[in-house]
Amino acid sequence: MWHALIMRVHNAIQLKNPSPSFVGEVVSTNNQGTDMPKNKSRIAEILKAHQDDLAAEWVKNLQATGTGKDSRISESQLREQTKEFLVLLSEAAAVGGDVHSQAWNATVDFLEDVSRSRVQQGFTSEETARFIFSFKQPLFARLRAELAKDHEAFAEETWAATELLDKMGLITIAAFQKTREDLINRQQQEMLELSTPVVKMWDGILALPMIGTLDSARTQIVMESLLQRIVDTGAELAIIDITGVPTVDTLVAQHLLKTVTAIRLMGADCIISGVRPQIAQTIVHLGVDLQGVTTKANLADALSLALKKLGFAVTRTKAAN
Amino acid sequence: MDRIPILRMGEFLLVSIQVDMHDQLAMTLQDDLTSMIERTGARGVLIDISALEMVDSFIGRMIANISGMSRILDAHTVVVGMQPAVAITLVELGLSLPGVKMALNIEKGMAYLRAQRAAEEGDGPNDLRYSDDGGAGYGTRQE
Questions:
Q1: Model confidence over A80-96: pLDDT tens digits?
Q2: What is the third-level CATH fold of B6-104?
Q3: How far is B109 from chain A, CA to nearest CA, in Å?
C-alpha cells in the first residue's frame, strides 16, 4: 500500500514537472536572454561556492532540531554526511535534469544509504526526514544573501530549491519506508519458519503445537512440513495442538479439516488437542462439522489416546512422594 | 508403457504405479485388476502410489473406484505411500476418498491386509464386515 502511495506522489511530481530539467526549467521559461546559462545553475553555483559554510550551518541546524544531539549519531558523522551530500548535490545540480535521471543516481543512492542507516540506528521517520528539511533554512538564507537585489530571481530560485529539497525528502522517506517494509517481510518469513515445529512425542507419534493465527499461507506450510515428517518418520499418529491459536473462525476450521483430511489420505491418523471452551462454543455456533475428527481438551489426553491406539500402556512403578 | 503390472503374492495382489497415470492407463488398470481378482480369488489388494507425483480429479476418483470395486469382489484394498503433495492436491480438489483404506508404506499396508485376513479366519466372516475402524486390525491380530 505504501509503495502505491509513494509511487503516486512520484507521479504527481512528474506531472507537475513534465520537463526533464526542472531546475533549469523554472529559470529558462522566465529568464530568456544572455544570462540564461549563468542563471541555470545558480543553485549549483551557490552550493559549490559556499559548501563549507552551508555544511556548518546545516549541522548547526540539525543539532538545534535534535537529531545532532543524539548519541546514536556523532557530530563528525553528521558533518561527513552533510558534506558528502552537498558535494553530490552540487555536482548533480550543475548537470541539472530530473531527479530520476542518471546524473542524480549518486545523490539518490547516498540518500537511500543514509535512510537505511537511520533505520538501523532506530530513528523515526520524522527524524530521518529532518536531515534533508533542515537544510532548507541555510540554503534559503544563502540564496537571499546572494540574490538580494533581484527579487524575481530570488523567488524563482527559492521555488526551485524547495522543489528540489522536497523531492530529496520524499526519496529519503521512501527509502526509510522500504527498509522498514523489508524488515517486516523478513520477520514474517522468520516467524513462519519458527512457528511450525513438528515434534516427535513417541515412536510413531508426532505433535504439532500451533501458535498464532492460522491463515492460508501458514496452513499450507504447516501442512507440508507435517506431511513430510510423517513420510520421513513413518509415524501413524499426528497430534495437532491448537492451544496457541487465539481464535477459530470458519476459515481456520476449514484449514484444520483440510490438514486432517490430507493426513488421513497419507494413511496416518490425526487428533486435534487443546480445544479451549470458548473455541468449542465458537465451533458449534459456526456450525462447523468436526464429526469424524478426534478432538481432545488438552495435549496430555491426546497423547494418552495416541499411546493407547498404538498399544502402549503407561503405568506408575512407584508411588509419588 | 501401456499397462501397469499386477503382481500376485500368495492371496494378495500388488499393484505398483511407477509412472505418471493418464486416463487410459487408469481405465486399463481398473479392467485388469478386477478381472485378476476374479481369476485368482485374491483376498487383498495393495496399491502402491509412492512414485505417483501428479494427480487430477479423475485419477483421484479412479483410485477410489478401484478400491471400491475390489471391496465388492471381497478383496480388502489398501492404498499405500501417498506423497504429501498428492495428498494436498486431493484435499484441494475436495476429494477425501472416504472408504479407501490408506497406509503410510508397504510394510504397514501388508500388516493391515494380513490382520484383516487373520481376523476373517479367526472370528468368522460376519464379525469383520462392519468393523471398519481402520487401525483396530492391528490389535485383533495379537488378541
A1: 888 888 888 888 888 77
A2: Transcription Regulator spoIIAA (3.30.750)
A3: 9
